[in-house]
Design a protein that fits this description.
Elements: H1 2-15, E1 30-36, H2 39-46, E2 52-60, H3 69-74, E3 80-87, H4 94-104, E4 112-113, E5 116-117, E6 123-127, H5 130-144, E7 154-157, E8 161-163, H6 171-174, H7 179-198
Parallel strand pairs: 6-7
Antiparallel strand pairs: 1-3, 1-6, 2-3, 2-8, 4-5
Helix pairs in contact: 2-7, 4-5
Length: 206
């Protein structure tokens, strides 16, 4: 009888649903998707953030399946250049990911970051759940208080994400002396690194 009761208790525990409010199991990661202009910049910036496990450059929410970089840049596919960020919620929360987003780029310029102009460079927070949406909206409202211009960042649900071509991944790390990296990516990464260090959010050197 004792053996049967033990087995029944174990089976009941397995069938107990885990609510969305429960903390993520140890080792489980979550996903955030952000667009802040050229994905080379955003990827390099967020890879420095403590708790980030992986950052993948890609395209989101367009009308073409498996778009190429050339299509996104030259054709109206509707995609945004974004970065899919995998992070450990035990180390950093989604709120921190979003709060730092306002420091990583200029959220007040519509479809533009510096000299990069086009809808693919739009400022975007692409949420995967209603909880992420609420956090993003609240963060935007707080960030607006610190901005002189109106924040134009879109907060929209994910339709589909496509990883960019292999040569785009870790582009800054692999091409630090390329012209665009020296003039644009490098300075943005250095500035973001200082902000992360000040907030004690900088990833430890490996």
């Amino acid at each position: 009888m004792k053996t049967l009761l033990t087995l029944f208790a174990a089976m009941s525990a397995m069938l107990t649903p885990v609510s969305a409010a429960d903390p993520a199991p140890a080792g489980q990661t979550e996903i955030a998707i952000l667009g802040g202009g050229c994905f080379w910049c955003v990827e390099a910036q967020y890879k420095m953030l403590k708790g980030v496990k992986k950052a993948v450059s890609g395209y989101a929410n367009g009308t073409v399946e498996n778009p190429t970089y050339k299509q996104v840049c030259e054709v109206d596919t509707g995609h945004a250049e974004v970065v899919q960020i995998e992070f450990d919620p035990a180390i950093i929360g989604y709120k921190d990911i979003i709060d730092l987003f306002w420091l990583a780029h200029d959220p007040t310029t519509l479809n533009q970051q510096g000299n990069d102009i086009g809808t693919q460079y739009r400022s975007s927070i692409i949420y995967l759940s209603e909880e992420q949406k609420k956090i993003a909206e609240a963060s935007l409202a707080e960030a607006q208080k610190e901005q002189t211009g109106k924040i134009v960042t879109e907060i929209v649900p994910l339709k589909k994400f496509f990883a960019a071509e292999d040569y785009h991944q870790e582009y800054f790390a692999n091409n630090p002396t390329a012209g665009y990296c020296r003039v644009v990516v490098g300075p943005k990464v250095a500035k973001f690194r200082e902000k992360l260090a000040a907030k004690q959010k900088l990833q430890e050197s490996k």
